[in-house]
Write a structure and sequence with these properties.
With 698 residues, the chain is an alpha+beta fold. It is 34% helix and 14% strand. The protein is built from 20 helices and 21 strands. An eight-stranded mixed beta sheet has the order 1-4-3-2-5-8-7-6. A five-stranded antiparallel beta sheet has the order 11-19-20-12-21. A four-stranded antiparallel beta sheet has the order 14-17-15-16. The longest helix has 26 residues.
């Protein structure tokens, strides 16, 4: 560590040099040479600030030479080496909101660290009024990270305007993809901080409109005979060659609708930019309804709120759901090696680690190498969501005479099932004639066919609701529910995991908060009574279409993320028994997917059973998280169970805005539902109008 005199001499020498920003590596060397550590800076900031406050209040005057010296050091350092993006010219329109946010972040910082008023040759920000569309109503503003003053992403239009979050509009001079990448990393001030102390910052996202894509030399549409999501530019395309010539790299998925362009990280600084091309169908209409039709500022708002509440999009909502799992539970953490004293990367407890793990044969898919190479013929887990239609022969005359069929939909049922869900973290071990333990996650071979259940309810043991016909593989929650119903469970064999943990808990917590907060912004709050809740849900999509799109994306992130845990091979050229790319990641875990879906299906059956006990009503059909009941009226209030006090009875379906509670899915005449049932069709699929999609992200 340099002495105090050497420290200030070094800083004086630096301040007398020609002012220019050295490269990151040189900055690090200079800081080390000057002996400036985070601890000393923090102490200086705190002490100096208190001294200034005391002086302003007339209690004392800051006369300490040490404080003066530190203040002089900080003044010069801040003026000469502003934080990334700090020197960007900010217009008065944008400055007020940014200043207010920065005051919250840096309330203890001295005035000496104010951003200098120097303007670059070409200003990169414009007032929000320059947008062709007035800035829309904003959701809650994210906390400002000084490294990323302009938020996580921007939508680039053909005129060089990059629309960021909070109404910011940046001037982007790039005319090629390479220039765009370099501008994004060096000048844009885009990015997002990590979600976990051991994680990584989110790379900046640039969304290209059709006009911007053409301007950068890309085709307006990406056409071909393959599935659109697997399309990409050929390797001999000029833009791909341009990227390679500039020493940038593309990931294995190439230059498609979601392209990642990167260089190997230098130290802690990542060099990676994500591109999303709207006209190449980067934003699926089912997950992002109406977003591609919005103006760039509106698209930036939708994606910005999603990035703030969930994660900066990395691809489809299914991909983002999987990435969020890793971001919330990073696989590694730094640890000091006791022998060498160096910091090394070590396993982060509670995570899935970095190495892929082969499943047990019954947990795999038929084309998986574990199955093909071993010749496994012992059957597979069949833990899927309900697709059940009740037999019309079981309908009573009273039920047939009820006028309405009312559909209830459980809010993010898979997310509710993920709460406090214990899953396996280690490789499976094989056991024979093992005693069942409901606390151990795994796959069990057992015969549940002798169990007799009410035919007016679906079997809780099979996705189609039919009675099992013999021994089959079940996830722990399914067998535990059989035990809960009072039946003896005697597994024949099992694949169990010794290391366990609630891996999905932080993922669940973040998505639950995103879902509830977005619904609240749309006027659907927890304090509403059931009648007011139904009214609010009926019009919430019209309240703010942008936030309604965010809500749809959050729901798609849940289902898609769970589905990605067992991503199947894609493409016409795949051969059974070959490994496919998804198998190389630690998050290819079909056993965790089975645990979530098993628990969700068991939760559904438990509510169906309780409803029958409390009301005498039995469902007509179930599709995943939607159930259809015969009803004397056109509202759920006409058949849901309530206590004499007016409060909902626990155990059955309850209305509300949180995961696991229900909302109205749709209403149709009872004769309509019976007609579909006689044809073998599922009323739950069509009760909303149209065709419901059972989307599990595969």
């Amino acid at each position: 560590m340099a002495s105090e005199e050497e420290l200030f001499a070094s800083v004086d020498a630096l301040l007398n040099e020609e002012p220019q920003l050295p490269p990151p590596a040189e900055r690090a060397r200079l800081r080390e040479a000057a002996g400036i550590t985070q601890a000393r800076l923090a102490t200086a900031l705190k002490t100096t600030t208190q001294s200034v406050k005391n002086w302003e209040n007339g209690r004392s005057e800051p006369k300490s030479p040490r404080l003066d010296a530190y203040q002089r050091l900080l003044n010069g350092w801040a003026a000469k080496y502003p934080a990334r993006g700090a020197a960007l010219a900010v217009t008065p329109a944008a400055a007020s909101s940014e200043t207010a946010a920065s005051q919250v972040e840096t309330a203890d910082a001295p005035q000496a660290l104010a951003v200098p008023a120097t303007r670059p040759a070409r200003p990169v920000t414009r007032p929000a009024a320059a947008s062709r569309r007035p800035p829309a109503k904003k959701a809650a503003a994210p906390a400002l990270d000084p490294r990323f003053p302009h938020g996580p992403l921007a939508v680039l239009d053909g005129d060089g305007s990059a629309y960021g979050t909070g109404g910011v509009v940046l001037d982007c001079p790039a005319t090629t993809v390479v220039e765009l990448v370099e501008w994004t990393l060096r000048e844009s001030g885009l990015g997002a901080p990590k979600l976990n102390r051991y994680g990584k910052d989110s790379d900046p996202l640039i969304v290209l409109t059709a006009a911007a894509a053409v301007k950068l030399g890309l085709p307006e549409r990406l056409e071909g005979h393959e599935q659109r999501r697997s399309l990409r530019l050929p390797e001999d395309h000029p833009v791909v060659k341009q990227v390679a010539k500039a020493k940038w790299q593309l990931t294995q998925r190439g230059f498609g609708p979601w392209a990642r362009i990167y260089r190997k990280a230098q130290g802690r600084e990542r060099q990676c930019v994500q591109l999303a091309i709207l006209s190449w169908d980067a934003l699926d209409e089912r997950s992002w309804p109406g977003v591609t039709e919005m103006e760039p500022a509106g698209i930036a708002r939708v994606l910005g709120v999603y990035a703030q509440r969930v994660i900066t999009p990395r691809g489809s909502t299914a991909v983002s759901g999987l990435e969020l799992m890793t971001a919330m539970r990073p696989p590694t953490k730094p640890e000091r090696d006791e022998e060498t004293g160096n910091w090394i990367s070590s396993y982060n407890p509670g995570s899935l680690g970095t190495e892929p793990m082969d499943p047990a044969p019954p947990e795999a898919t038929p084309e998986h190498p574990v199955v093909v190479r071993s010749g496994w013929t012992g059957g597979f887990l069949n833990e899927e969501a309900y697709q059940w239609v009740r037999s019309v022969d079981t309908l009573s005359d009273e039920e047939c005479l009820l006028p309405f069929a009312v559909g209830l939909d459980l809010n993010t049922a898979f997310l509710a099932a993920a709460a406090r869900l214990v899953v396996g973290l280690s490789a499976p071990d094989h056991f024979h004639h093992v005693k069942f333990n409901p606390k151990i996650p795994g796959s069990w071979l057992a015969d549940l066919s002798p169990i007799e259940l009410d035919p007016r309810l679906p079997s809780p043991f099979t996705p189609d609701g039919t009675r099992p016909t013999g021994p089959a593989w079940y996830q722990t929650h399914t067998l535990a529910y059989a035990q809960e119903l009072g039946h003896d469970v005697h597994p024949i064999e099992a694949y169990l995991r010794r290391e366990t943990g609630a891996y999905l808990d932080p993922w669940h917590d973040r998505l639950k908060t995103a879902y509830v907060d977005t619904l609240a912004d749309l006027g659907v709050t927890k304090d509403l009574d059931d009648r007011a809740f139904l009214v609010a849900m009926e019009r919430h999509k019209q309240t703010d279409p942008a936030l309604a799109a965010v809500l749809a994306a959050v729901k798609a992130t849940v289902k898609g993320g769970v589905g990605k845990l067992r991503e199947r091979p894609q493409g016409r050229h795949y051969k059974e028994g070959e490994r496919w790319p998804a198998l190389e990641r630690a998050t290819w875990r079909p056993d965790i997917r089975a645990a979530v879906i098993s628990k969700a299906r068991v939760n559904m059956h438990r509510k169906l059973t309780n409803m029958a006990k409390m009301t005498g009503l039995y469902p007509l059909a179930v599709l995943s998280d939607c159930v259809v009941y015969p009803s004397p009226g056109a509202s759920p209030l006409d058949f849901l169970p309530y206590a004499a006090s007016g409060k909902p009875q626990p155990g059955g379906f309850r209305l509300g805005p949180t995961p696991g509670l229900a909302k109205l899915e749709g209403v149709q005449p009872m004769l309509w539902a019976i007609d579909l049932m006689e044809q073998g069709l599922n009323p739950a699929r069509h009760i909303k109008g149209g065709d419901a999609v059972l989307d599990e992200g595969e």
